[in-house]
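In response to reviewer comment 3 from the previous cycle, which asked for concrete evidence that the modeling workflow produces usable outputs, we include below a single protein chain processed end to end. The sequence was submitted unchanged, and the resulting structure tokens are shown without manual editing.
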Amino acid sequence: MYCDKYNEELFSFIKNSPTQYHAVANMARSLSNGGFVELREHDSWFIKPHSKYFATRNGSSIIAFLTGDNCPWESGIKLVGAHTDSPCLKVKPTPEIQSHEMVRLGVEVYGGALLNSWFDRGLNLAGRVTVLVTDEDNDKDNIVNISGVGEYGKEFIRTLLVNYDTAVATIPSLAIHLDREANTKRVLNPQIDMPPLFTIYSHSHLEDLENGSIQQESNDFIREPDSFSNSSTSKSFRLMLLEQVIKENSNINIKELLDFDMSFSDAQPPFFTGVNQDIISAPRLDNLLSCHVALKSILRVYSDNASVDFTSTQGGFAPPCMVVCTDHEEVGSDTAAGAKGSFFNSVLSRLIPDTEQRVRSAARSFMISLDNAHAVHPAHSELYDSSHTPVLNQGPVLKTNSSQRYASDCESAALFRYICKRADIPMQTFVMRSDMPCGSTIGPIISSSTGIKTVDAGAPTLAMHSIREITGSADPFMLFQVINHFFSMESLPLLSLI
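The workflow returned the following structure tokens.
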């Protein structure tokens, strides 16, 4: 029953988070409802003991923390890290590609997407837009710039979320009759093959014919040469997007669409599969599964209204706890909102202004970096180290790498094993084959910049970076139980942290 309830909430979170911007907005809403107070980076911060706070940057990264007794230089901080972004297809600024009465939208591939999984399925379109609004009914907290006085009074530039929340495009495969080597030698060119089919002209033929922009000859519609120029189709896409923004934000006086960060994602929601319904198929499991685990865990710490659907934590205040969910991990993290940016260290320095105390705090702290782990593929076990083959529904996976692509070492790994054992949850280990390169996470980035002892772990996953990924139905809840137990511990038994 606990697991079913947890997966229900996970499915809802994933469905309502088609982009990192939506994920952070949903996390911020949950934190606010859970009694956390938002801190804005450009305001002064007054941190109190025994309090709950969160801050965001770029609308795509979020850090939440409980201050506890507010003496982290004596107790350390218990941290959980994850990333909010997932591989996707990002819409180009002027995206329209016209060919044979059809319009596709040009895209850039974001992250290491498994491109062949994107074909012949419904694609949703979502993201954020920047719009020009007047001063009527505006929320100051969401205004990103003041541009002055315009025709309609005082004008502001504001960022809003948008989500079509339905299939609005598709990428059609080339028929095998036209590509006889499709199953043996197919090579995808992102510039040519990946732009999704967005619309066809035929739906507007009658209207255009009545307006005189189309001539009819021999039962064929022939369009005037310039009736669909680049400028007009670009305007058409922006107008369509603007209409959707207005539809979703009818209470805001929007005057103009200025720019956008839009991307395509799978329109199909998460579902269970397998004859026993013990497998989860969902988009963006990497790494929204981990974000959700971190969110639910920190909301449970010292909660006064513990739900019977989750493991209870003991009352009272203990060492500070923190959740760090950053953007742009899939493209290297080297951005203002990424793990290599200043966001985490900025929050840490404002939480602990004194340099000496901050260094002592880092030396006593411990972070579990959560990112999905490779489960053994049933058809390709030869690509795995034979002694390290995690399987679904068998517990969280500890990840190690001698080149420190993962931050785990024998001390941090030992503590993670101890936490899993105390939580009564089985765990597994993963190491890449010695003749294959290894991926990485935000763990080594934060650990190297702060000195915080870190372990890398995650839920076992198949089809990583596919448009739909696979995990076991028990895996998300087991990972939650481990992190929930970690946050509930009054102290950590690792002597090097004491």
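Residues 2-86+283-497 form a domain with the Aminopeptidase fold (CATH 3.40.630.10). We consider this sufficient to address the reviewer's concern, and the full set will be provided in the supplementary archive.
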